[in-house]
Amino acid sequence: MPHPAAPAFRLFFRPAPSGLAALGLLSVLSGCGPDQNASMSFAPACPITHVPGEAADYYLYNGKSTTFPDLVARASIVKLQGDCQSGGPKDLKTRLVLRMTVEKGAAATGTTVTLPWFIAVLHGDRIVNKHVFHHVVTFPPNLSTFDNETRLVTVDLPIPPRNVDSDYRFEVGFQLTKEQLQYNQEHLRRPSWQSY
Fold it and tell me: Which of 20, 26, 27, 85 is the S-S candidate for 35 at Cβ 3.0 to 4.6 Å?
């Protein structure tokens, strides 16, 4: 987890119209465990959290080609960290941080790059909400590849006390354009991210 003083972004999720399911995200993997300090009468499991392979890498080119000389930046999600705790008798707080490896490309002209990433919340098979974040990365001097973490994000979920196992799950990854998604699908590598 980042330093405790790191600013947090808080999301509040409530059921949304079923039409959002048409947004169609990808699928599911591992998550985090319940807070050991939670009340025995309220100890729901953390939502299952998944980074789809197609959304684990972000390639930004300068628009001339998709070859090495025209690469502005590349980022890969390498770790998903998080924990959960009770936020009251009907509330589950999940904290998430993404760790990524960022590479400065040969075509980079500035000192920063903005990496869009998302958290989508699914309840059963229905998407109930999605939020896109914009993580600004500053390239360190004399360093072309480095690790970086997003700020801490807190997701508040309404969960009745009777739910011991959460039926929410998260999809987390880079927010890609259609062209970037197609590029990833054509050049897909085995995901290198970890989840705890």
Answer: 85
Taking only the tens place, the pLDDT of each residue in 59-108 is 999 999 999 999 999 999 999 888 888 777 678 888 999 999 999 999 99
Instruction: Give the other-Cβ count within 10 Å of 160's Cβ.
Output: 9
Burial class (CB in 10 A: 0-12, 13-18, 19+), 52: middle
* Nearest in space to 68 (alpha carbons), one of 106, 98, 117: 106
Site of tokens 């405790």: 4
109 residue type, one letter: T
Question: What span, in angstroms and rounded, lies between the C-alpha atoms of 49 and 72?
Answer: 29
Which residues, including other chains, have CB under 8 Å from residue 1's CB and lie 6 or more apart? 81, 83, 95, 97, 152
